[in-house]
Specification:
This protein is mainly alpha-helical. The chain has 9 helices and no strands. 64% of the residues lie in helices and 0% in strands.
Length: 142
């Protein structure tokens, strides 16, 4: 299947699992996304199990900054063995929410051989969200 076919299938899964109550709650809480389907982590994990890990697919999802579930699902689909320091730092410094920082740290960053150095570098950042990502990564390394 091509990346575009996978994305179409993934978006269909988002629709099938959508939860209006969770979506409304997240929207009212100020989540910065244009589209929030309201999926919970077990549902995202179920969708992720259907696909092979792929930088291309994960990048396409991560770059979809308008859809909450795309960003979170990407964290499940990045293959750790193909992520170098620069890519990991780029991902960590592009998180939009605390939720993304937590999931990215737990699902990907903690498995990287340079995770401690990355966490330390993020802790030194003036941006509160990136700093939080460093703290989340340290928690996952402990």
């Amino acid at each position: 299947m091509t990346t575009s076919e996978n994305i179409k299938e993934i978006k269909h899964s988002f629709l099938a699992f959508r939860n209006g109550i969770v979506s409304d709650t997240l929207r009212k809480a100020g989540m910065p996304y244009g589209i929030i389907f309201g999926l919970q982590l077990p549902q995202l994990a179920e969708i992720a199990r259907r696909y092979d890990k792929s930088v291309g697919l994960a990048d396409t999802l991560w770059n979809d900054t308008n859809v909450r579930e795309s960003r979170l699902l990407a964290c499940y689909l990045y293959p750790a063995e193909e992520i170098d320091y620069e890519k990991a730092h780029s991902l960590a410094t592009s998180v939009l929410t605390v939720e993304e920082a937590d999931i990215l740290s737990f699902r990907l960053l903690r498995y990287l051989p340079f995770a401690t150095r990355l966490a330390d570098d993020l802790l030194g950042n003036d941006n509160n969200l990136y700093n939080y990502c460093g703290k989340a990564l340290h928690r996952n390394l402990a």
